[in-house]
């Protein structure tokens, strides 16, 4: 239950970050923004947990580096892909990771996730389709291709977290993930981006919100929670991010919600409820 609450926290604050990110991307190039977020997040983790990090950093270096690299690829391809497709379409294609997680586990580990999990994952993807609204029209383009890479990277990252968190200190694993992503973002920013200032003081509160709650808090809690939650179960709960993102956009950006989008939210909530009730459903079926 605590693991599920932690994942719910992640989905909530990632959703609340949508309107904040819409403001921040007007001031910072994507890779530089990632560097600011995750380098500051790594610093915060080290301040609070430096003894644990100094003790076991090298033991989790491989796992943290893999998780951090996968997250950077996922966020990077999603960001670049949005130059070619709309936000709703990007959100839907990215959300396919919810279905990819159990399918990849099934293919690699030969472990059937169960019909309840597959149904909940499909229901979640259907909900994301309705949330995307009218943006799903149009042919396949490079933005779709990049966002498919994003979805696959998110799926593999979630599976990798469950794999490495089981035998590692999740706090140190988070620190290593942050450091890896920061280095990759910094190098990419130097190569591909230009900027006129390091930090814009007009965005300091939004940036602090992203660093403290959505980066330091969320990504560290995700790894801690996935030490105890199945990856397919975790991915369904975290899909609530899109629902909270829509709600926060309505509250803070005055966006309008259509019936189709409300239906999408309802389907995602239903998928999460089914995932939460899966043990009870399976027990009744066996009975």
What's the rounded overall pLDDT mean?
84
State the helical fraction: over 70%
The major β-sheet equals: none
Quantity of strands, as a count? 0
Indicate the structural class.
mainly alpha
Radius of gyration in whole Å, from Cα? 19 Å
The gross shape turns out to be globular
Short description:
With 287 residues, the protein is mostly helical. It has 13 helices and no strands.
Give the topology, please.
Layout: H1 2-24, H2 30-56, H3 61-81, H4 87-94, H5 97-109, H6 115-132, H7 142-165, H8 170-192, H9 204-225, H10 231-238, H11 240-253, H12 259-276, H13 278-286
Helix pairs in contact: 1-9, 1-11, 2-8, 2-9, 3-7, 3-8, 4-6, 4-7, 5-6, 5-7, 5-10, 6-12, 7-10, 8-9
Task: Give a written overview of the molecule.
The protein is mainly alpha-helical and 287 residues long. It has one domain (2-278). Helix content is 79%, strand content 0%. It contains 13 helices and no strands. The chain is globular and about 45 Å long. The model has no long low-confidence stretch (mean pLDDT 84).
